[in-house]
Every structure is written in C-alpha cells, then in structure tokens.
Design goal:
alpha/beta
Amino acid sequence: MKIAVFFALDAECSPWRAGHRFQSLAGTDGSLFETTFGQSRVRLALIGVGARRLDSIVASALDGGIDVVIGAGVSGGLQDRQKLGDVLVARQVLSERDGRTARADDRLIDVAASCGARIVETFLTSDHIVRDAARKRELGARGEAVDMESFAILAMAAERGLPGLAVRVVGDEVDVELPLDFESAIRPDGTIRAMKLFTQAVAHPRDWPALVAFGQAQRRALDRLARFLDRFVADLSSRASLP
C-alpha cells in the first residue's frame, strides 16, 4: 500500500518522523520525505500553515500512485468534551470560508477508530489561527475542532478519487488562549518565522510560564499523535487493500 501523509509543519510531524527512517527526497527543498513501513511506502509532505504549499507539492507527493491520503496535525478544541491529547477523526471537514464540505472515507474512519481515535462529526477549517477562547466557543456550534489544512487535503483527495482521512490531535482546549500571535509569524509559503515568535516572547516575560506550559502541552499532544500514527499506519500496512 502507498500512503501519503500531509502535515503543515515539520514541528508537527517531528515526533513521528524521529521514530522512522524518513529520507528527504531530492529536489523537494526538504518538504517531502519517504520511508517504508512494513509492506507499505509512506510519503510525508509538508504543505505549510493553511496548506499554502499544497498545490506546488501535490504532484510530487502523489507521484507513482497513492492508495490513501491522510491529513494530520494539531488542532484547537472547540467544545468542552475535546481534551488535550485527544486524537480525533472527523466524518467531514467544513470550510469556514465558503461553507463547502469534504467527507472522509468511511473505511479509513473505521480503521482509525479501531486504533484508538475518537470519531467526531466535523472539523472546521479556518483561514486564520483561532487564538481567542471566546471565538473558539463560538465556532463550537459548527464543529468539534479547528485547523487550517484539513479541508484542502480532503478536497484534493476527493478530486483525485482517493480515499482520504483527517486526523487531528487536540493541542489546546477550548478555554485556552494561545500565548503568542502565531498568525503574524506566518510567511507567504506557510512556514513560520521562529525569530518573530522569539521576539514576541522576549518582549512579554510575564507570559513565559504560560508559554512554557503551552509548549509542553503541544509536545505531549504530538507525541500521542505519533503513537496513534504508528498503530494506524501499521494497520493499513497489514492490508492488501481497504476493507
């Protein structure tokens, strides 16, 4: 089986990538990696915040044929029931921009649930990082978790007739305010200006404890996502095809 896994940033996938021998593919500027996983070939693509690099990398990511498309990463919880570290899969993804939806493959949802993910109805894909807790609660009427890439990934898979799934781990609960203005640090290609975030942090020393706690929480969440992906990809790799 050939599996393509799309993440926004290297920081999101590094706990998972560190446990496997992913090799950077030549000519892809460090945005495309590949490894073998059991009987499967797994290709990992970094598409930037908001999937800004998806169009430029998708042909290379799918080159040679792909059987399954997975969108993975961190999300913000939008309801009280979504707790830090919860690994979620959604039946559909809703674009906040225009109200379009993209549905996940039911067979992949079943496999993910058997590997420990919790099924929810809707992920909301926003054009902006949702930093404010009050805004997250407001969006909770439309979905269980929010991110910036899932709709683009599932829509791309659907356009190509490929089974797709969005997998998200909750990195911040609904009442958690993000400690930095991450939005201002996003480059046009969807990568992050680390120095911009560092400058913000230095300028507000009173926020350092909250920032450290946030970073630790994100790391724990991404470690849980990595463990889930190990189980999930191993299960997929043991199959000749989806049931």
